[in-house]
Amino acid sequence: MILAVGLTLGLGALGGPALAEDNYLQQAIAETTAAIEAGKQGEASSFVEHADDAIDRARSAVWGTPVDPIRKGIKYLRKAVKLAKGTSLDKRIAKATEQAELALQQFQSVK
Predict the structure, then answer these.
(1) Angle between the N-to-C axes of helices 44-64 and 68-84, in degrees from 0 to 180, rounded to the nearest 10
(2) Does the first or last residue of the chain, that is N or C, have fewer Cβ atoms within 10 Å of its Cβ?
(3) Is 10 buried (19+), middle (13-18) or exposed (0-12) by CB count in 10 A?
(4) Can you tell me the distance from the alpha carbon of 74 to that of 80, in angstroms, rounded to the nearest whole number?
(5) What beta strand segments (E) does 1-111 contain?
């Protein structure tokens, strides 16, 4: 009986971190989507804020689930932030938005 309870608790504990990484990935997807929407509206500062948040969430997700699509998505987002930071040029914001869309594709491919 005690062994069964211990195994049940142990398996439950193992399932916890996997759910946490999945939650981080979902948050990264949501933040990336918000960044894309801000980029399409030409709001560079909001774009950068959401993209930075998405990078943070994706880094947390990759810590527990080290898969290449998440890493590639982070690289795309970092490039997007560099393009959009400190600018109001529509062309640069559009290019940054394209990079964020590529990142979103990478994050969604993990599922």
Answers:
(1) 160
(2) N
(3) exposed
(4) 10
(5) none
Q: Say how far residue 110 (Cα) sits from the centre of its chain.
A: 11
Q: What is the pTM of this model?
A: 0.80
Contact 64, 93 (CB under 8 A): no
The structural domains of the chain, with segments of one domain joined by +, span: 20-108
The maximal CA–CA distance of the chain, rounded, in angstroms, is 67
Provide the CATH topology of domain 20-108: Four Helix Bundle (Hemerythrin (Met), subunit A) (1.20.120)
- The tally of CA atoms less than 13 A away on the side-chain side of residue 68 is 0
